Amino acid sequence: MVADIDNRRSTTGYVFIVGGTTVSWVSKIQSVVALSTTEAEYVAAIEASKEMIWLQRFIGELCKEHDMGTL
Fold first, then answer.
1. Using an 8 Å Cβ cutoff, are 54 and 33 in contact?
2. Is 22:28 a contact under the CB 8 Å cutoff?
3. Where would a tag sit more exposed on the chain, N or C end, judged by fewer CB atoms within 10 A?
4. Whether residue 2 has pLDDT greater than 80
5. How far is CA 40 from CA 8, 14, 36, 37, in A?
6. pLDDT value at position 8?
7. Other CB atoms closer than 10 Å to residue 44's CB: what's the count?
8. pTM of the full predicted structure?
9. How far apart are the first and last CA of the chain?
10. How far is CA 67 from CA 9, 15, 60, 61, 70, in A?
11. pLDDT digits over 3-58, tens only?
């Protein structure tokens, strides 16, 4: 994490790779000003966790539809 000197906010970044292919990535300024490096890392971990849950559900739905023969 790197702090933005102008607005004192940290940068969140993560990459999700499925089967060797990048399917989701983010690099953005956090929406809150963290009071410590630990807090900034916690905010980044929460954002990455939310994306991971969404991706798991999305891929699960794709597999479910494929099993039913609708794709």
1. no
2. no
3. C
4. no
5. 11, 14, 6, 5
6. 84
7. 20
8. 0.75
9. 41
10. 45, 28, 11, 10, 8
11. 556 778 899 999 999 889 999 999 999 999 999 999 999 999 999 999 999 999 99
The tokens of 3 are what? 């702090």
- Integer Cα distance of 33 and 4 in angstroms: 10
Per-residue confidence (pLDDT) for residue 66, from 0 to 100: 60
Q: How far is CA 46 from CA 30, 39, 58, 63, in A?
A: 11, 11, 18, 26
Please name the amino acid found at residue 65: E
Name the strand (E) or helix (H) holding 47: helix 37-67
User: What does the pLDDT read at residue 68?
Assistant: 59
* 57-67 per-residue burial string, b: 16 or more CB within 10 A, e: under 16: eeeeeeeeeee
